[in-house]
Amino acid sequence: MELTLLKAKIHTVKVTEANVSYNGSITIDADLLDAAGIKKYEQVYINNAISGSRIMTYVIPGKRGSGEVCMNGGAALHAQVGDTVHILSFVSMAPEQADTFQPTLVFTEGNNQIKSIEKYDY
Prior knowledge:
Layout: E1 3-14, E2 17-19, E3 25-29, H1 30-36, E4 43-48, E5 54-62, E6 69-72, E7 84-93, H2 95-98, E8 104-109, E9 113-119
Parallel strand pairs: 1-8, 2-6, 3-5
Antiparallel strand pairs: 1-7, 3-6, 4-5, 4-7, 8-9
């Protein structure tokens, strides 16, 4: 048996662009991805804190240090520029691993720049 646990969360970023003409996905500043340990093309969930919309898509790395968070294609229908979103990644693991696993939480500040990187410890 495997469990699905939160791997990483990029907490409270602002959408900087919504491009419905693109084929799909979310483009995220590569610095944010590295901080969270999220890989190119990895599946993520996006929770919109303004509208309540929740969607699943995949990641495309954006320009480092740009603060870009661009909703692409159909994902652009779930968020507007300026909306606050949370980006979550999950991982499957054995229950024994889950006992000691700690997800990464990336906090941001103005312009989606990294404020701190923490491990959940509850």
